[in-house]
Structure to design on (368 residues):
């Protein structure tokens, strides 16, 4: 039996034709232009124009944008620039499993804020206010959230920022890499659309999830100019600029973003419905539908071995699913044991086969 992976964070998208055409023309022209470490000026200007079109709350300048070799690199650059050893990072959970390693690499400490599937992973201002301590340096969240697909609304973010604005030493970092994969009427709000009188707001984003530039290895950060300059200097000292062809592809994708994201969402809709219809047959697996990303994060605790402790039971269930031919992300790695992250950004035939094989393990009778 061949293993079908619903665990990958990569989609099965073709690169945008506009990006391919732009890079092809660039390469046919011979010598590539040089790029400063912080990225090509025209790409940084295009990113600024994109956010201004969405409605930024203040003047955003290209000097606040740094192009990085992937979004993970953008996260690491910011964390290294702002955290001191022992600083706390408030991290709502479930969340992307990679955050813990990045925080640890720069000497920070992750302080988890456990959220609940029952109320659709709401993060209340009261919970945030209670969690802030003298050691708190950063609130780190994703919107839309990976793995849950939860989209935090403008009103919800505004309420959280009312808390952080009372603590100017606490920065707020929003990972918005899935911002174009949205299935709700309102667009995903960017942190850059909110007033920032104390220069607390940081954003990372990229081109692989919402703009189909898979394996082009390019992302970016947006930060107050002084922090962006530190990140650019660090990149200059350790590696230099992102490859120019990747930057040119990203420029074309940025200019065509509305059309590209609309196409991707149309592509994803049938698979999304296929997976959600299957999960609806399971007992209380998905009380709230994911608003964004191409993941579902069902609660599979009804299918765990009750004789095992929760983390071990979660590992065992994931192993049973893999033995049945389907690879998934164990929710325990996202701090939600008993849940699983399933991607539907795969060929439809593979998803259909995976659902059949999942059904061999995930039967209501298994929970009795």
């Amino acid at each position: 039996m061949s293993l079908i992976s619903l665990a990958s964070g990569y989609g099965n998208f073709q690169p945008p034709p506009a990006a391919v055409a732009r890079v092809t023309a660039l390469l046919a022209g011979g010598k590539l232009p040089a790029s400063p470490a912080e990225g090509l000026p025209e790409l940084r200007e295009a990113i600024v124009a994109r956010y201004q079109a969405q409605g930024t709350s203040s003047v955003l300048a290209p000097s606040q944008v740094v192009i990085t070799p992937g979004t993970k690199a953008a996260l690491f650059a910011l964390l290294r620039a702002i955290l001191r050893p022992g600083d706390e990072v408030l991290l709502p959970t479930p969340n992307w499993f990679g955050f813990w390693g990045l925080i640890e690499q720069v000497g920070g400490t992750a302080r988890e804020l456990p959220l609940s599937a029952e109320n659709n992973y709401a993060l209340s201002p009261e919970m945030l206010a209670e969690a802030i301590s003298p050691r708190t340096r950063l609130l780190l969240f994703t919107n839309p959230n990976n793995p849950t697909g939860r989209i935090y609304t403008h009103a919800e973010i505004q309420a959280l920022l009312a808390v952080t604005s009372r603590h100017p030493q606490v920065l707020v970092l929003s990972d918005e890499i899935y911002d174009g994969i949205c299935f709700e009427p309102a667009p995903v709000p960017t942190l850059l659309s909110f007033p920032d009188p104390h220069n607390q707001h940081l954003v990372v984003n990229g081109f692989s999830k919402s703009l189909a530039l898979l394996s082009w290895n390019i992302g970016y950060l947006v930060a107050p100019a002084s922090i962006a300059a530190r990140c650019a200097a660090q990149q200059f000292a350790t590696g230099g600029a992102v490859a120019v062809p990747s930057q040119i592809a990203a420029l074309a994708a940025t200019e065509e973003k509305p059309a590209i994201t609309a196409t991707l969402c149309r592509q994803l809709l049938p698979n999304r419905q296929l997976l959600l219809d299957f999960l609806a047959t399971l007992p209380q697996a998905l009380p709230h539908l994911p608003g964004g990303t191409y993941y579902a994060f069902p609660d599979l605790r009804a299918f765990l071995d009750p004789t095992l402790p929760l983390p071990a039971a979660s590992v065992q269930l994931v192993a049973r699913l893999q033995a049945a031919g389907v690879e998934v992300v164990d929710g325990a790695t996202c701090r939600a044991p008993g849940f699983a992250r399933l991607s539907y950004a795969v060929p439809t035939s593979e998803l259909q086969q995976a659902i059949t094989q999942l059904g061999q393990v995930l039967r209501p009778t298994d929970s009795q």
